[in-house]
C-alpha cells in the first residue's frame, strides 16, 4: 500500500443500524436514501483507493461535493487524476497505473461488500482507465454501481492539496456525521472549477451536472467567472491535446434542457432544483467561452 492503511469503514456491517442511519439522514437532509447510501459507499471506496496509491489525486463532481463545498448534489462516480505530461509514453502511463490495478484487483478481499463488474481497463493510449464496482443496496436490495475513472493525460496546473472528504450519513442518535472526514489528496478548488468550465464547453455530449455545479458555485460559493486566474486556467485546460473544441452554441442548450428532469432532478433536493436557471448558467459558460476560445 502506498499510504498508511485507512481506518476501517464498517457501518454497513450492522444492517439494522445502517438502514436506520440512511433513513434518518434522508429525513434530515431531503436527499434520497439511495443517494445517501451511495455517498457512504463512495467514501469507503475512496478511502481504500487513496490509501492504495499515493499518486492518485481526487477530482471531479464528487470531489467538489465532498471536499470543496457543502453537500448540494450527490454524485455517483469517483474521478481521479495521476498527473502526467501530455507527451508521456503509453508504457510510462501504464507503469504509473500498477498500484491502482493491484488495488482494484484486491478490492473484494479488503471490502467484501463490493464486487468488481468491470476490471480496470485502459483506453486512448492508456490516457484513461475505467473500472466499475457493484454493491447490493441495504435499502432497495437492488444492485448499485460506482464507476471509477483515472485520467493520465495532463499535469496539474496548481498544487494538489490535502482536503477532508466528508460523508453525509448521520448517526440517528446524535444527529452528527457517523464517519469522520477522510483526508485525501485532491485537486485545488480553483482548478476543479476550471475543469468544470472545460467540461461544460468541450464535452462531446453536454452534461447538465456541469452547468448546475457552475451555477451553484457562482451563486453560493463565491466563484467569479471573470477572475483572471480562473480564465487563464480554463484556457490552459482547453489547450491540452485531445480536447474537443469549445462550444456554447444554441443546440448545446437545447440538449441540456432535455436532461433537466431525467438527469438533474433525481440527484437534487426539490428546493435546489427549483433555484436552478439553465439559461443563467448557460450564459455564464458562454461568457467564459468568449474569453477563452
Descriptive key words:
2 domains; 7 strands; 15% strand; five-stranded mixed beta sheet; 293 residues; two-stranded antiparallel ribbon; alpha+beta
How much of the sequence lies in strands comes to: 15-25%
* Shape estimate: globular
Biggest sheet architecture: 5 strands, mixed
Count of folded domains: 2
The SS-based structural class is: alpha+beta
Rg, rounded, reads 19 Å
Helix content: 40-55%
Q: What is the end-to-end distance?
A: 43 Å
β-strand number: 7
The SSE order reads HHEHEHHEEEEEHHHHHHH
Number of helices: 12
Unreliable stretches: none
Q: Report the mean per-residue pLDDT as an integer.
A: 93
What is the quaternary state of this protein?
A: single chain
The main sheet orders its strands as 1-2-5-4-3
Characterise the protein shown here.
The protein is an alpha+beta fold and 293 residues long. It has 2 domains: 1-187, no CATH class; 189-293, no CATH class. Helix content is 46%, strand content 15%. It is built from 12 helices and 7 strands. It has helices spanning 15-29, 33-52, 60-68, 90-96, 98-110, 189-202, 208-220, 228-238, 250-257, 260-264, 270-275, 278-292, and strands spanning 57-59, 77-81, 115-123, 128-136, 143-151, 161-165, 182-186. The strands form 2 sheets. The protein has a 5-stranded mixed β-sheet with strand order 1-2-5-4-3. Strands 6-7 form a two-stranded antiparallel sheet. Helix 6 crosses helix 7 (208-220) and helix 6 crosses helix 8 (228-238). The model has no long low-confidence stretch (mean pLDDT 93).
Amino acid at each position: 500500500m502506498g499510504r498508511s492503511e485507512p481506518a476501517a469503514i464498517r457501518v454497513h456491517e450492522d444492517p439494522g443500524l445502517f438502514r436506520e442511519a440512511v433513513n434518518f439522514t434522508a429525513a434530515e437532509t431531503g436527499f434520497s436514501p439511495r443517494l445517501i447510501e451511495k455517498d457512504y459507499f463512495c467514501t469507503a471506496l475512496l478511502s481504500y483507493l487513496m490509501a492504495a496509491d499515493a499518486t492518485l489525486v481526487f477530482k471531479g463532481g464528487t470531489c467538489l461535493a465532498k471536499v470543496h463545498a457543502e453537500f448540494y448534489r450527490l454524485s455517483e462516480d469517483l474521478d481521479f487524476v495521476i498527473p502526467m505530461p501530455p507527451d508521456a509514453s503509453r508504457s510510462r502511463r501504464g507503469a504509473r497505473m500498477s498500484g491502482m490495478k493491484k488495488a482494484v484487483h484486491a478490492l473484494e478481499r479488503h471490502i467484501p461488500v463490493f464486487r468488481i463488474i468491470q476490471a480496470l481497463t485502459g483506453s486512448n493510449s492508456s490516457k484513461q482507465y475505467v473500472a466499475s464496482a457493484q454493491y447490493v443496496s441495504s435499502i432497495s436490495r437492488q444492485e448499485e454501481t460506482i464507476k471509477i475513472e483515472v485520467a493520465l493525460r495532463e499535469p496539474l496546473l496548481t498544487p494538489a492539496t490535502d482536503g477532508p472528504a466528508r460523508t453525509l450519513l448521520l448517526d440517528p442518535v446524535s444527529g452528527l456525521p457517523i464517519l469522520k472526514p477522510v483526508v485525501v489528496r485532491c485537486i485545488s478548488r480553483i482548478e476543479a472549477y476550471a475543469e468544470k468550465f472545460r467540461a461544460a464547453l468541450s464535452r462531446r455530449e453536454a452534461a447538465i451536472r456541469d452547468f448546475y455545479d457552475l451555477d451553484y458555485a457562482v451563486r453560493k460559493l463565491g466563484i467569479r467567472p471573470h477572475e483572471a486566474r480562473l480564465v487563464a486556467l480554463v484556457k490552459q485546460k482547453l489547450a491540452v491535446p485531445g480536447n474537443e473544441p469549445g462550444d456554447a452554441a444554441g443546440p448545446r442548450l437545447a440538449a441540456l434542457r432535455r436532461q433537466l428532469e431525467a438527469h438533474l432532478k433525481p440527484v437534487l433536493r426539490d428546493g435546489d432544483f427549483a433555484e436552478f436557471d439553465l439559461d443563467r448558467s448557460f450564459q455564464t459558460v458562454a461568457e467564459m467561452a468568449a474569453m477563452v476560445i
